[in-house]
């Protein structure tokens, strides 16, 4: 038996979480370093998995399979396709930056007693989330996936509710109330989604008699499993609802701005760049693969909802006064693009959507983390409290601009590639939807440039005077992300090579072919 | 004699017991009413056993008696300890579980 | 030779990377490095040009494929270059004028502490613009297209501490993005129609699809061109873009970037040739902008904004020519090149004037400067003569050809277009004479600046005057050089094609008419600004003048409809999101809470009431069972 690489990739951060939590209260710095080392080791393992993955090979690779709950046929089954392995690597890549960016976010306040151990808990929870997210990208057993999908809410709940952004307006009590409101809202939304999914998971078991993705696919292929149309649709809706809450899709999005606004910026990155990706990933893996017919049936509605998300999220971003909420609404707009790409059901759309998940993760992390550095310096999240920062802290302003330009999908940076693929893929299947989605690029420019103009340009505000530029630790966080954005913008081929075969598998699951160009079709 | 009369008697006893449980407040009386209901059930079980000509009902009646005995032990113990702490055997006073 | 194309782009790109990431260590030598790399790019361009001249007309096109950019099933985007005569013309213009303006900026930006970054941005611009013109497919062109937009954004907003500059930069980027939307939709249409967006296959296959599709693609390309080239209705950003440093205005907003729209249309000629409706739209846009820009140029007192109006108008000429089809393509590009010389020269002259006048831009506060700035006066004057079309100078040849071509369009259309072009020539003569008279002639109307310093006009340093002199040479001789023996026509014809059309009136008549309107325009300007003293404070003026000062109310329209409307929309959406979308969910939560509050009352703690419900439940169950039996 070969080394269980996938299990190890998920287990390492889990072990790290336990180890970090066990560090004595006084050794705070040691806990931070320990967490960082574990996250880096996980990154190495994820890198090995990525290297060992053969794009042209089997659909699921590095597979592991063990019996778990025999009576219900639940198995501990892991395996990654091109989409899963890329997202797993993205998660492993982002966590070290999240940890490094949040280095001082959980330092105890002087007023608290010395026995309080928030620091260890903060980093342990982050590693716990990483372990669960990575495992959920690897799970090929529906039940296993469901458990992880729900379980990751618990550490996230504590991260949002327990470690709020210290830059808040109003009194401490007020801020604490808002924070717990955001955390509860996050939990309730996702729990409702999860419960509906649970019903669908049980329903699936009743119909198919197994939770294993590969067995269900096999049974579908040889005709031994046939779902009634209405059953398939109901089950699809159950799964999709949960994923649409997580992703989030309009009108189920309102938890995201609260959660991202109240959490510290590294946790906000964790929410939008890592945890939410599980939702869109699961749409690709479970919705399309398990319920191809129902997916096609629901496509028109989902495309419309995705378009609403794109335009609505962007418009609301323009209207925000809080930097972090602005980025949250921008993310809603971007998730609209991802979902649009998935349900356009063309090769370009789905490859684009997968790349979009990766690129959005990196670009939002860059923008949000720099915004976090900015907010920590000034102690306010309100856009109106800033002005002229570029004069005082040019490097901070420069990196913020690059993050912003990536968010508005400037060609040459990674998000452009994915956004254009999504647009082309959508356009070739639904021209009108493609055109409407294209207005998103104008609105994105609007909210990014308005944000940049109001915070960074103009005369230097008195409170901003004397603001320090980025420090070494912060540069270490931001520069690699920017380098990656540039590299993947110019040369995305390594990614597309891994993703393409997986997308072709998904396309054959839903039995869709790309629309032929008119001229070639005529020939 | 027609066994159905025994069933009528059992129903009557059960109703008296049930009414007692619902109406009376004294824990001891409540308790006796519960016993009355149990015995009404026993009577019905034995009657059915006789009517159907097998022993199942009689066996269950024995079980009921054992359970009732155990219940009396535990129940009386609780009532005594409640009375000691509150100097009352009224069930309405024991509503601590209410929010 | 092919490999040199990548090097052409790489040199300024390297410069941008080094200068922007290099930090303060490069502050002292950064501008030299930037200029050097621009010059390297120009030299490579010249080498490629000479190589091209050595080949036959038909096999001059070079191709270079660097790598496969976005390989996805059914979708091939390559980073690949194509250098033909059309691209070559642009390469020489961009790198040539670009290098001159780099040299000029060394002097102009001498006292700016962020000069290194300025040169970094300029190099970034050169690289993006070169990608735009040497790309071999529309998607890579799009990269350059947005790249120049970014460089333009950064450079307009270079003095970011001025809120007006930051706003102007944002506006330019946003309006351009609207145009970019057109370009991306056009690319998507090409992809669904042809399965590719590389120039070669797309332009060769135009015959195989419907005219409707081609018209749609053409209109979307036109939208893109309108954004980049500041054509009506997306012209509003160009005037504000003058907030940027003057070398930027000269390079980006006069000579090169704003002409990218013309390049796009000429490059896509095959599409427009097969879509007459789209062509008509192009012509209309060109003609309207031609007049619009000219009218705005007449009313502005800010020397740079007057020149910006003129740029719009001149690009209107080019777009008009490009819309005429094969009759006009060559002349559109020829006017583009000569315009690149004289307009860059005029802007540099304006910069030189501002440099000597404490950065004053109001022409009413200039006057009589010819004695103090002789070199600027002469070079600016030559540029002036070139732009109004003085016989023998560059503008004369290129503009005359466009007017001829407009008449040659034939029919009523030809007459209308020809007359518009002639009228435009008259207005051009008027507003340029006005600029000339206000700045260099008349008595001194100098005013102390905000800090009370009286201006002491002086000639600019050599690094600034030499580029001006070189450009003045171009303004004088380029047109004649191109026209003798139809050199330019023969050079470009293999790429763009050419047809003569049927002019209803002879070439000599057109030239004569042009001369007449030229004299009329100059005479009116002389009567208004030369004969009598000019007031320092602008008179109220007629309704048209006041409207023209405000860019013919375009901005007011934008403000009321788009800005205000948009603000209301976003604000109400924020409200809706909070109260309605979130409210529905919170309302559900609240009603759940209320319901559970009521249900809680059932738990009263009395064992008896629980027992009642148990008995009641049992009774109901039994009754139900019996009933079912009975039925």
TrEMBL record, chain A:
Keyword set for this entry? Answer: Membrane, Transmembrane, Transmembrane helix
List residues traversing the bilayer: 31-51, 78-103, 123-149, 187-214, 234-255, 267-291, 297-319, 326-345, 357-375, 395-417, 429-452, 472-491
The residues covered by the NADH:quinone oxidoreductase/Mrp antiporter transmembrane domain are 139-443
UniProt entry tagged with the keyword Amino-acid biosynthesis: no
Topology term for the membrane: Multi-pass membrane protein
Name the UniProt record assigns to this protein: NADH-quinone oxidoreductase subunit M
Q: Show the Pfam families listed in the entry.
A: Proton_antipo_M
The species is: Streptomyces gelaticus
UniProt-annotated location(s) = Endomembrane system; Membrane
Query: Is Chloroplast among this UniProt entry's keywords?
Result: no
Xref: InterPro entries:
NADH_Q_OxRdtase_chainM/4, NADH_UbQ_OxRdtase, ND/Mrp_TM
Provide the family line.
Belongs to the complex I subunit 4 family.
Under NCBIfam families, the record lists: NDH_I_M (TIGR01972), PRK05846.1-4 (NF004500)
TrEMBL record, chain B:
Which InterPro entries does the record associate with it?
NADH_UbQ_OxRdtase_chain4L/K, NUOK/Mnh_C1-like
Q: Where are the transmembrane segments?
A: 6-23, 28-48, 60-83
The enzyme's first-digit EC class, named in words, is: translocase
Which Pfam family would be a valid example here? Answer: Oxidored_q2
Q: Where in the cell is it found?
A: Cell membrane; Membrane
Cytoplasm as a keyword of this entry, yes or no, is: no
* Protein name (Swiss-Prot/TrEMBL): NADH-quinone oxidoreductase subunit K
Automatic annotation (TrEMBL), chain C:
Signal peptide residues on this chain, from the entry's feature table: none
Outline the extent of the NADH:quinone oxidoreductase/Mrp antiporter transmembrane domain: 135-421
As for membrane topology, the entry says: Multi-pass membrane protein
A Pfam family name for this chain? Proton_antipo_M
Q: Which UniProt keywords apply?
A: Membrane, Transmembrane, Transmembrane helix
Which spans are transmembrane here? 31-54, 89-106, 118-135, 181-204, 216-234, 246-266, 278-299, 372-394, 414-437, 466-485, 505-529, 610-628
- Quote the subcellular location field of this record: Endomembrane system; Membrane
Per the annotation, which location comes first and is thus the protein's main one? membrane
Pinpoint the NADH-Ubiquinone oxidoreductase (complex I) chain 5 N-terminal domain residues.
69-119
Matches recorded under InterPro entries: NADHpl_OxRdtase_5_subgr, ND/Mrp_TM, NU5C-like, Proton_antipo_N
The protein's name in its UniProt record: NADH-quinone oxidoreductase subunit L
What is the source species?
Answer: Streptomyces gelaticus
């Amino acid at each position: 038996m070969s080394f269980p690489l996938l299990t190890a990739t998920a287990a390492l951060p889990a072990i790290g979480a336990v180890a970090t939590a066990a560090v004595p209260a006084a050794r705070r710095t040691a806990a931070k370093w320990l967490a960082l080392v574990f996250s880096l080791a996980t990154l190495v393992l994820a890198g090995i998995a990525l290297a060992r993955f053969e794009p042209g090979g089997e659909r699921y690779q590095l597979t592991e399979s063990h019996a778990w709950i025999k009576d219900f046929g639940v198995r501990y089954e892991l395996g990654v396709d091109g989409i899963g392995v890329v997202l797993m690597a993205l998660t492993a890549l982002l966590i070290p930056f999240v940890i490094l960016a949040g280095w001082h976010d959980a330092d105890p306040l002087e007023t608290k007693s010395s026995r309080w151990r928030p620091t260890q808990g903060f980093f342990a929870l982050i590693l716990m989330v990483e372990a669960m997210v990575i495992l959920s990208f690897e799970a090929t057993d529906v039940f296993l996936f469901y458990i992880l999908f729900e379980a990751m809410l618990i550490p996230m709940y504590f991260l949002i509710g327990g470690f709020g952004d210290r830059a808040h307006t109003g009194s401490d009590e007020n801020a604490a109330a808002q924070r717990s409101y955001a955390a509860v809202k996050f939990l309730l939304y996702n729990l409702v989604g999860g419960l509906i999914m649970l019903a669908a998971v049980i329903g699936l078991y009743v119909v198919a008699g197994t939770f294993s993705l590969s067995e269900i696919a096999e049974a579908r292929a040889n005709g031994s499993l046939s779902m009634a149309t209405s059953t398939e649709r109901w089950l699809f809706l159950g799964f999709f609802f949960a994923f649409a809450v997580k992703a989030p899709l309009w009108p189920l999005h309102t938890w995201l701005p609260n959660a991202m606004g109240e959490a510290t910026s590294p946790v906000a990155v964790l929410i939008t760049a890592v945890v939410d990706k599980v939702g869109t990933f699961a749409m690709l893996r479970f919705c399309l693969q398990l319920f191809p017919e129902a997916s096609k049936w629901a496509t028109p509605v989902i495309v419309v909802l995705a378009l609403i998300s794109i335009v609505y999220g962007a418009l609301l971003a323009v209207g925000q006064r809080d930097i972090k909420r602005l980025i949250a609404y921008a993310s809603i707009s971007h998730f609209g693009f991802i979902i649009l790409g998935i349900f356009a059901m063309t090769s370009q759309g789905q490859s684009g959507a997968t790349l979009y998940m990766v690129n959005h993760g990196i670009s939002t992390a860059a923008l949000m983390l720099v915004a976090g550095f900015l907010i920590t310096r000034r102690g306010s999240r309100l856009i109106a409290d800033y002005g002229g920062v570029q004069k005082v802290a040019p490097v901070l302003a420069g990196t913020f601009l690059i993050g912003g330009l990536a968010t508005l999908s400037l060609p040459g940076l990674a998000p452009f590639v994915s956004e254009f693929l999504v647009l082309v893929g959508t356009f070739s299947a639904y021209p009108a939807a493609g055109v409407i989605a294209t207005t998103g690029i104008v609105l994105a420019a609007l909210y990014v440039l308005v944000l940049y103009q109001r915070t960074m340009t103009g005369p230097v505000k008195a409170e901003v005077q004397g603001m320090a530029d980025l420090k070494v630790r912060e540069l270490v966080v931001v520069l690699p992300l920017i380098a990656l954005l540039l590299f993947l913008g110019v040369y995305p081929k390594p990614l597309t090579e891994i993703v393409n075969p997986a997308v072709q598998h998904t396309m054959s699951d839903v039995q869709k072919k790309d629309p032929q160009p008119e001229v070639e079709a005529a020939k | 004699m027609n066994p159905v009369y025994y069933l009528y008697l059992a129903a009557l006893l059960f109703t008296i017991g049930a009414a007692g449980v619902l109406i009376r407040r004294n824990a001891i009386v409540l308790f006796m009413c519960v016993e009355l209901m149990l015995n009404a059930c026993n009577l019905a079980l034995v009657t059915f056993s006789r009517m159907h000509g097998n022993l199942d009902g009689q066996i269950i009646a024995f079980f009921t008696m054992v359970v009732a005995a155990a219940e009396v032990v535990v129940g009386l113990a609780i009532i005594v300890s409640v009375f000691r702490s509150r100097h009352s055997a009224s069930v309405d006073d024991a509503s601590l579980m209410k929010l | 030779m092919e490999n040199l194309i990548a090097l052409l782009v790489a040199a300024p790109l390297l410069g941008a990377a080094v200068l922007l990431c290099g930090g303060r260590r490069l502050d002292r030598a950064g501008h030299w490095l930037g200029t050097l790399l621009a010059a390297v790019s120009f030299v490579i361009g010249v080498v490629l040009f000479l190589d091209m001249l050595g080949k036959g007309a038909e096999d001059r096109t070079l191709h270079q494929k660097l790598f496969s950019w976005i390989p996805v099933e059914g979708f091939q985007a390559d980073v690949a270059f194509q250098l033909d005569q059309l691209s070559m013309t642009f390469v020489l213009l961009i790198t040539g004028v670009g290098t001159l303006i780099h040299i000029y900026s060394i002097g102009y930006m001498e006292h700016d502490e962020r000069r290194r970054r300025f040169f970094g941005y300029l190099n970034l611009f050169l690289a993006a613009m070169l990608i735009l013109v040497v790309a071999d497919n529309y998607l890579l062109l799009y990269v350059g297209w947005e790249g120049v937009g970014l460089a333009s954004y950064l450079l307009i907003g270079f003095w970011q501490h001025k809120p007006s500059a930051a706003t102007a930069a944002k506006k330019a980027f946003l309006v351009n993005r609207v145009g970019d939307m057109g370009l991306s939709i056009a690319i998507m249409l090409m992809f669904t129609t042809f399965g590719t967006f590389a120039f070669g296959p797309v332009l060769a296959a135009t015959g195989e699809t419907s005219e409707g599709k081609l018209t749609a693609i053409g209109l979307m390309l036109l939208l893109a061109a309108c954004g980049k080239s500041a054509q009506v209705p997306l012209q509003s950003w160009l005037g504000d873009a003058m907030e940027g440093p003057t070398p930027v205005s000269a390079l980006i907003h006069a000579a090169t970037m704003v002409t990218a729209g013309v390049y796009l249309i000429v490059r896509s000629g095959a599409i427009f040739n097969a879509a007459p409706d789209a062509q008509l739209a192009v012509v209309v846009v060109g003609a309207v902008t031609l007049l619009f820009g000219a009218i705005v140029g007449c009313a502005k007192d800010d020397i740079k904004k007057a020149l910006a109006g003129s740029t719009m108008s001149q690009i209107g000429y080019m777009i008009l020519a490009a819309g005429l089809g094969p009759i006009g393509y060559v002349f559109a590009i020829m006017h583009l090149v000569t315009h690149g010389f004289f307009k860059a020269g005029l802007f540099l002259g304006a910069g030189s004037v501002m440099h000597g006048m404490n950065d004053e831009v109001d022409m009413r506060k200039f006057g009589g400067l010819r004695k103090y700035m002789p070199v600027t006066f002469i070079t600016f004057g030559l540029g002036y003569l070139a732009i109004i079309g003085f016989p023998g100078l560059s503008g004369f040849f290129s503009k005359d050809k466009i007017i001829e071509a407009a008449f040659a369009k034939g029919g009523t259309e030809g007459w209308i277009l020809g007359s518009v072009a002639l009228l435009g020539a008259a207005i051009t003569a008027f507003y340029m004479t006005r600029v000339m008279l206000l700045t260099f002639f008349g008595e001194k109307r100098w005013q102390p600046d905000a800090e009370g310093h009286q201006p002491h006009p002086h000639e600019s340093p050599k690094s600034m005057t030499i580029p001006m002199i070189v450009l003045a040479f171009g303004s004088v001789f380029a047109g004649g050089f191109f026209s003798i023996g139809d050199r330019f026509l023969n050079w470009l014809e293999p790429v763009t094609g050419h047809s003569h059309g049927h002019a209803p009136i002879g070439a000599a008549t057109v030239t004569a008419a042009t001369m007449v309107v030229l004299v009329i325009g100059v005479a009116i300007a002389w009567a208004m600004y030369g004969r009598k003293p000019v007031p320092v404070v602008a008179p109220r003026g007629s309704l048209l003048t006041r409207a023209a000062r405000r860019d013919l109310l375009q901005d007011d329209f934008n403000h009321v409809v788009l800005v205000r409307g948009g603000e209301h929309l976003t604000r109400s959406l924020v409200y809706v999101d909070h109260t309605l979308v979130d409210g529905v969910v919170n309302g559900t939560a609240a009603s759940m809470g209320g319901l559970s509050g009521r249900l809680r009352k059932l738990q009263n703690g009395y064992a008896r009431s629980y027992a009642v419900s148990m008995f009641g439940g049992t009774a109901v169950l039994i009754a139900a069972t019996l009933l079912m039996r009975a039925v």
